[in-house]
Amino acid sequence: MKKYTHLAHINLVGHYQFITFRTKDSLDSYLNKLYTNDEATHIKQYKIDQYLDTSTKGAYLYDEVIDQIIEYYVEYDKALSEVIAVSIMPNHIHILLKENAEFPKIMQILKGGGSSRQIHKVLGTKGTLWSRDYENHLQIKSRYNKNKKGSL
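Structure tokens predicted for Transposase IS200-like domain-containing protein (152 residues):
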């Protein structure tokens, strides 16, 4: 299965970003097909969100894992970004934040060592937890985040 890891990312220090990233195991051929179809971006994103919201693939983000993620993001370095809202779904996370540093550094911290280590510790697992890529959206999707499970 071809992995799409060269999506355009926008680095806008001082601006708000809406980011979605998912567990590695949630990616499958159907999701890849959605990514590569020729539909308008908002339609494609809606279908991807609907699929991820109902898929059980890579669904590790429950109960104590959610508590660990929220604790990690609450204690997260505010110099890098200000986390406005977090919506934790079973196999992906949405975050609305204000970018205070270079975006790749923010993502390295959000997806990298800290959150992965804590989640692996709770689950008793090892290996790659998050998919390599992520999506950052210019449109503010706060309605999607509002009232979701595991939201701050």
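Residues 41-54 form the longest helix (14 residues).
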